[in-house]
Design a protein that fits this description.
With 440 residues, the chain is an alpha/beta fold. The protein has 2 domains: 322 residues, 3-Layer(aba) Sandwich (Adenylosuccinate Synthetase, Chain A, domain 1), CATH 3.40.440; 97 residues, Adenylosuccinate Synthetase, subunit A, domain 2 (Orthogonal Bundle). It is built from 13 helices and 20 strands. It has a 10-stranded mixed β-sheet, with helices on both faces. Strands 14, 16, 17 and 18 form a 4-stranded mixed β-sheet that branches.
């Protein structure tokens, strides 16, 4: 099985598309040998699915290493924490036999409150048809407060005096804004404060200075895995703005979201689905609106872990993946869900866009241009399927046992992106994985 940082002590796992690439599985797979797994951004709007035997786990804020008994799992300061939802998720996982002894939460992480979730819904309703497809979990309003310097941090809900002082300033403003937006009525300030303090007491045993913890681990050559949520195209700066999340999903977000220097990140593994999906609104050049799109949706099980929404499906877009390779400084790719393409006779891969009669090899900033983009495709031959239930046996035999056209497809991805394929996933389970890193 894989060992995190087999050659180097730290590795980042980053999504190269619009999220939902299979980062949860890849993170869990690599985490077998990790001392620490660290989430550096996002909140309960993320969804990572992990399959262990017949058990399927849907994680949201908990790092994907939480199912590994000897791994410390850190929620970094770049994350936003909903105490109520986190406590529920912790209990659900504990009830299934996985204790929380390895969980750590940054004392500097911002807190999602009830008013953030109320504001999220009210603001999205105000946008009407121009809505950005928020999950309604208060992520954006919480990050907005963080940047506006009116946020509540984890350390604040451990100190009654500090929290009361902050709420005296914040509460009247939020109450007024909700009124203007015709949002729901906010509960009394005292009740809201009491709930935050009670949750703070329950979470206090897990609260640490995460930057000190992670830097100390790296100093002592511990194996550290940095786990991203969402994907590059949902990055607040570099994604398809405004149809993005509220944080930096790319590698650079690790430095600010954990509190480490850039030289501490040794490897960056980009997770790429063998086709493309996205949830919610926004332009999607390779989207398929036909029966093939429905086929990918059904065979790929493309429903959101967090929202349950059907994902929009399309051909692999290498303009997007190349863009992600550049932004993240990828040192390798993990290509997932190749088995979903089994038995398709022909595959298309977008290598550029045509916009108003001009060729674009790079991903444009303007959504107005992107909405008019027509993919320029290369066509590749598909490959034969293997018998149902044979994925583990195929993976066990190794890379050369894969169909030749599948290997050619992977070689094509590596050639266009100029990044080596290091991991190949042909199923949901850990054993349905081919790890090429030890051949490097």
């Amino acid at each position: 099985m894989a060992i995190a940082g087999e050659h180097l002590p730290s590795i980042a796992v980053i999504g190269t598309q619009w999220g939902d690439e299979g980062k949860g599985k890849i993170t869990d797979y690599i985490a077998e040998g990790a001392d620490l797994v660290v989430r550096y951004q996002g909140g309960t709007n993320a969804g990572h699915t992990i399959k262990i035997g017949n058990d399927v786990f849907g994680l949201h804020l908990l790092p994907s290493g939480i199912l590994r008994s000897n791994t410390i799992n850190v929620i970094g300061n770049g994350c936003v924490v909903d105490p109520e939802e986190l406590l529920k998720e912790m209990k659900q996982i504990e009830d299934r036999g996985y204790p929380m002894k390895g969980l750590r939460i940054s004392d500097r992480a911002n807190i999602i409150t009830k008013y953030h979730k109320m504001l999220d819904g009210a603001e999205e309703r105000q946008r009407g048809a121009k809505g950005v497809g928020t999950t309604g979990r208060g992520i954006g309003p919480c990050y907005s407060d963080k940047i506006a310097r009116s946020g509540i941090r984890m350390c604040d809900i451990l100190d009654e005096q500090v929290l009361n002082e902050k709420m005296d300033l914040i509460y009247p403003v939020k109450e007024k804004v909700l009124e203007v937006l015709n949002g729901p009525k906010l509960e009394a300030k005292e009740q809201l404060t009491k709930g935050l303090l009670e949750n703070g007491k329950r979470l206090e045993p897990y609260v640490v200075d995460a930057s000190v913890l992670v830097n100390d681990a790296l100093k002592h050559n511990k194996k550290v895995l940095f786990e991203g949520a969402q994907g590059t195209m949902l990055d607040i700066d570099h994604g398809t703005y405004p149809y993005v999340t509220s944080s930096n999903c790319i590698t650079g977000g690790i430095c600010t979201g954990v509190g480490i220097g850039p030289k501490k990140i040794n490897e960056v593994l980009g997770v790429t689905k063998a086709y493309t999906t996205r949830v919610g609104a926004g332009p999607f050049p390779t989207e398929l609106h036909d029966d093939l799109g429905k086929y990918l949706l059904t065979k790929g099980g493309e429903w959101g872990t967090t929202t349950g929404r059907a994902r929009r499906c399309g051909w692999l877009d290498l303009v997007v993946v190349k863009y992600a390779c550049r932004l993240n400084g990828l040192t390798g790719l993990a290509v997932t869900k190749l088995d979903v393409l089994n038995s398709l006779k022909t595959l298309k891969v977008a290598i550029a866009y045509e916009i108003d009669g001009k060729r674009f090899d790079e991903f444009p900033a303007s959504l107005h241009k992107l909405e008019r983009a027509k993919p320029i495709y290369d066509e590749l031959p598909g490959w034969e399927d293997w018998a149902e239930g044979e994925s583990k046996a195929v993976a066990k035999k190794g890379y050369q046992s894969l169909p030749k056209n599948m290997r050619d497809y992977l070689d094509y991805i590596a050639k266009v992106t100029e990044v080596e394929v290091k991991i190949v996933s042909i199923g949901k389970e850990r054993e349905e994985t081919i790890d090429l890193r030890h051949h490097a």
